[in-house]
Amino acid sequence: MSRGAALELFAPSGLPMVRKGDDLTALIGDALAEYAPRDGDVVVVAQKIVSKAEGRTVEIASVTPSERARVLAAEIGKDPRLVEIVLSESARVVRSRPNLLIVEHRLGFVMANAGVDQSNVAPQDGVARALLLPLDPDASAEALRAGLSARFGVKLAVIINDSFGRAWRRGTAGVAIGAAGLPSLIDLRGSPDLFGRALEVSIMGFADEIAAAASLLMGQADEARPVVLARGLTWAAPDAPAAALVRPQAEDLFR
Amino acid sequence: MSRGAALELFAPSGLPMVRKGDDLTALIGDALAEYAPRDGDVVVVAQKIVSKAEGRTVEIASVTPSERARVLAAEIGKDPRLVEIVLSESARVVRSRPNLLIVEHRLGFVMANAGVDQSNVAPQDGVARALLLPLDPDASAEALRAGLSARFGVKLAVIINDSFGRAWRRGTAGVAIGAAGLPSLIDLRGSPDLFGRALEVSIMGFADEIAAAASLLMGQADEARPVVLARGLTWAAPDAPAAALVRPQAEDLFR
Fold this sequence. Notes:
2 copies of one chain form a homodimer. Chain A has 6 helices and 12 strands. Chain A is of the alpha+beta class and 255 residues long. The first copy, chain A, has 2 domains: 8-54 and 135-246, CATH 3.30.1330.100; 57-130, CofE-like fold (Alpha-Beta Complex), CATH 3.90.1660. In chain A, helix 1 crosses helix 5 (137-152) and helix 3 crosses helix 4. Chain A starts with a strand and ends in a 24-residue tail after the last strand. At the A-B interface, strand 1, strand 9, strand 11 and helix 6 of A face strand 1, strand 9, strand 11 and helix 6 of B. Strand 1 of chain A pairs antiparallel with strand 1 (5-11) of chain B.
């Protein structure tokens, strides 16, 4: 802990627009080759390109809203078909207000609109589509981790990130919705501090902090630079997926 | 947005233990000199060393708990003197449970224990002390920004960071409690996405994401590397302090 440390993040250019069925491991690998990935590098991938490659789109015109979606849509002033899509991705509604639905996503994430996104979805054929989160982002991260590690012959970690709003604070911050090959949480309980006492703030949201760092480089229209390589991180804790970052409802004071 | 991008973070070694009255601008400047700070570099400073330099400590033995603190302390199983210190830093209690108080700090931050910390406080004289947040972290950041910019003859930005727990997610993440010389929030409303539509997720917690990135390097016993220099960030929005990150209670759905 006494020496200086450095962390580098690189966001390659040249990644093409991603479409359903694309081999994301190959596309990301091609983009990262110039950085010669090394053991311990962490590859952060924007949720949108994972969802697109996996074909997680819904044609908005194809959706028939339920009665519940129509009532809620009228309350908050949104398209009932979009509300139907959000509800279909959610375990329950946590809060609603005009133009905003905060839900518990089926994966446990408490987030706006279940992550359903209309921006940056290619109107390639004039059909309006909404983009959903990947079906199982931890599994998607693991597949990318295995594929990219094999391609470069090194041990890589992968995070799939998204930008979430927060309670109490304005603005979004990058968080990990999928992770493989690293500990999403690092439990410091019992680690002595500089004077030998136990640390009070005790569990670090490691993958979320990496996701936030990468978000800084991904840019504002975040498909422009949807992949970031982070180099210089070290950890000793065992791997844990991003699902470990979801606070179980029983220990959550704010749902 | 089409070229690759890079972000570097450096955490110097060699910063001495900080004590009340120390010239923090000089200490941080000495530690950063090896990196030859440039225009646009962001210096992230751990809250603890700012609080220590400002002498924001309370001798625990000197505190007489109020009746309210004694009742609350009995409910949650904490030292009533520590509860008194937390309450004295707080506008109100948001939630409480055994061993945990989530409060609205007098600066508006919703956080555990009002940021009052017993870890890593030097028992230099055998007297137990608690460490409070800086009195005005945005002003502290501005003083550091002005002093460090003058020393190096470049335009720097400064963030004071801390690790906060979050609603809904396990683990802490670095956030900005003070900022100067950069926009704490970047409002993307109206910025077109890749297909010319307005972005839906619209305000980016820029200073919080930088704070989280720096936290990755600060290490677990975070006084070991309490200063991080971030290089490679760019922004066009006007400066806004970290106070802008506090969601006003009237627009907060979770207080």
